[in-house]
Amino acid sequence: MPSNNSKEKIELTTIIALLVGVVGIFGSAYLSESLSPANGSLMSAFASGLTTLSVALMGLGIFGILLDSKNWREYFGERLKEIVIDNSYLKTLDSGTLKQLQTSVLKAQFNNQQIDKDGSFLEYFHLHLHKFISEPYREDVSTEVLMKKLDDSDDFLVTDKVRYVCRASGGKIQDSIGWKPDPDEFKEVRSLKIKIQFPANHEKAGESQEIQVDQTKLNEGVKEPLSEFESVDGLVVITEAQYVVERGKFQYWQMAHPTKNFDVTITYPEGLSIQFKTLVLEDVVSQITEHDGYLKFSYGTWALPQSGLAWLIQSA
After folding, report:
1. Residues 130, 182, 186, CA angle at the centre, nearest 5°?
2. 225 with 259: CB under 8 angstroms?
3. Is the pTM of this model over 0.85?
4. How is residue 104 annotated by DSSP?
5. How far apart are the C-alpha atoms of 3 and 233, rounded to whole Å?
6. Assuming Cys at both sites, which of 9, 124, 190, 270 could form a disulfide with 293, CB separation 3.0 to 4.6 Å?
7. What is the CATH number of domain 137-315?
């Protein structure tokens, strides 16, 4: 907002422009009437130029007076808001221009003109993290890892249950359900079941549907499309896998999508111990409950893809 002194200067300039314009109009009329200069003469050209300049000054003065009035200020303020802030303008810009605009805002916000230099975190953000802002995400992920000793061996039979809510972005949820073990992560993969359940606001609320999985391809991993349900915001996905792991081998669990809020419960034979490591950014919003044969980890904020957990079951 301009200061009072600045406003007074603008008002004075507006009045002077208007007065000079009026005087110029009369002066031009006087020259034309009293001196009657011949067409094409220097005096005729001067009178014509004086008229043009005077009209321009009068227009500027009148515009300034109108602009200073309350209604006109509000009108132009609303138009500027539409142009600069509202989507009606931003939607006309291409991605490169929007990126430059975003960078300019960040430079002003942090008062740092070098914020986008080569190798900066902002450069990394634009290349690797920026896309997650608009991607579909998961919410309220709940996982149970139930580990039982397998016969007389040192192996564990694991039942791995995961339940999460698919949230839409841009009108679509995630495009598929993926499940894939890393090489040599499991000694044996026995089965995988996938089921979806419709949310409370859907016409099929509470109904569930099993998705058929090719059990012969579990070691390679599976990817089941969700195109049929892409517009169902709040779709619930439930997976249950059963596999065999060796004792003393690290297990880990990673996010495949941006995730808001998750918890993991791990049960294992009593008398053994567990090493547990979080791979998240905000440990201050997490909670761990642990006793013999049981561990539960809760995380109450956002986690990026590839964030997750790692644990190892070993002798006490």
Report:
1. 145
2. no
3. no
4. H
5. 50
6. 270
7. 2.60.40
